[in-house]
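Dear colleague,

Following up on yesterday's call, I've attached the two folding results inline so they're easy to grep. Please treat them as preliminary; we haven't cross-checked anything against experimental data yet. The first protein's sequence and structure tokens come first.
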Amino acid sequence: MEATVAWMDGQKKAGKLLEAYSIPGGSVAVICEHPDADDAAQTIASIPIGAFMDNEVYALADLDAVMKVEIENLKQAEQLMKK
């Protein structure tokens, strides 16, 4: 456990680990920043206690940026339907 705490501190200093939360029941949720999937996979593989954990990874996108694209696409679709 101490090795994992030290590893997490290093990840925070490196700017990869942004937030970490304990979930009642023994789980953990973290928010990380990675340039690509390979970096994320290598980071997860390097967790000292990782062999004893199950991981679920979800890519997160900026909601405002995604909504702008969605709105523009819907506007374009609306114009096409008027023709």
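Below is the second protein, in the same order (sequence, then structure):
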Amino acid sequence: MTIQAMTDEDLQQIRTVIREEITAQHLVSRADLDAAVESIAADFSELRQEMNTRFDHVDRRFDNAERRLDRVETQLYTITISTAA
């Protein structure tokens, strides 16, 4: 069995095939990266909406608590005035 040395043409063909494969892999990787970025952006948008909803809920609860404390303060003032007389 005789082993033939590779010609420059053979080496160039191998380089071309390898270069094409690397380029194809890079394009796939770039497409995957772009899809991941879009997905993350969508997730952040959903998270922002959820946080805004929760903050709105907390604000409403604080408003309710403030109104209740105002009523308690009014009642305590009334009791204080009643007992002072």
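For the second protein, one point worth flagging: The CA atoms of residues 40 and 46 lie 10 Å apart.

Best wishes,
A.L.
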